[in-house]
Amino acid sequence: MIGLQLVRTRVFCQISRSPRNPKNVMARRFVRTPTIDWKPITSKTTNLRTAEQQAKTPIIRRFFLGLMIAMPVISFVLGCWQVKRLNWKANLIAKSENALVQPPIDHLPPVLDPEVIPEFEYRKFKVKGHFDYDQEMFLGPRIKDGTPGYLVVCPFVRSDGGKPLLIERGWIHKDKVIPTTRSDSKNYLRHLAMPQGEIEIEALFRVMPKKSNLQFDHEEGTRLFYVPDVESMAEQSGSLPIYCQMIYDLTDKPWIGPNESRPSKWKFWQKDETTNYRPEEYQEFEFVKQGVPIAATPKVKFSNNHMQYLVTWFSLSFFSAGLLIWNMRKKSGGAEKAIEAKRKNMKANW
What we know:
By secondary structure, the chain is α+β, with helices and mostly antiparallel strands.
């Protein structure tokens, strides 16, 4: 009776008679008890490792919670920083493109300050002088249309004085590195491959990135450079640390040797071949075969991927913030839902 009052069990009895012995009466008793909180308490054997893992669980949860809180903030700050970088890069590209379309500077001062050259990047200029082939250097190897070769960098001695400038003349085939292969008398383009005497060239200023510690160092005394290390190239050749690039041009140019001069206007019987000179344009394969450096096409080579970075960081901030809100709501509502479900179950069974 006491047990019935404590657990409020429902007792059902069923009486049946045995067919063999009708006098014997069989009584069956059915007891239904609720299953709520009726599970026995079991204990598991634990060891030191399990205890340590259980002790570390709150720390790991706190770490991930802190990471989820910090991720939206950090990614949003990085997105704002990319907005500033995007504006800076857009202004830099616009400034460089504007400098590229400006007319070339006709005269350079004898004294040039390398510190102000970044303000004149991609600005064209004309200068007279001659190349110092004894200090010729090669940058590479470089691949052009699947063909290995090198970039020729040669000091240009200015006629109006001042220290020489580092001029990147262009790309040549690897078999034309030796100067004699370009100055051979059988080469009908030798006056373009290795022009002699005073000439006038047109080039543009460039600011090359500094060599990092992960790149190969230049071996002193050699003419081969793996990266455009302007400081080392200028120190080796005795030039200014100012890097310039010649402009892509496939036309022929009149050339007067150091021991030659233009015919006098008074001697009308001497034909001046340069009076009605029409420049002939060659093909690139002729320049490659004869060892004429192929200069770079003048264009702005700045990469601008800041818009992609901007979208990536802001998207990450948005999704991480949404995930954090969803997780916090799930944790706060999970306990209340469990209690409410337990109450409904108890009411249904009692």
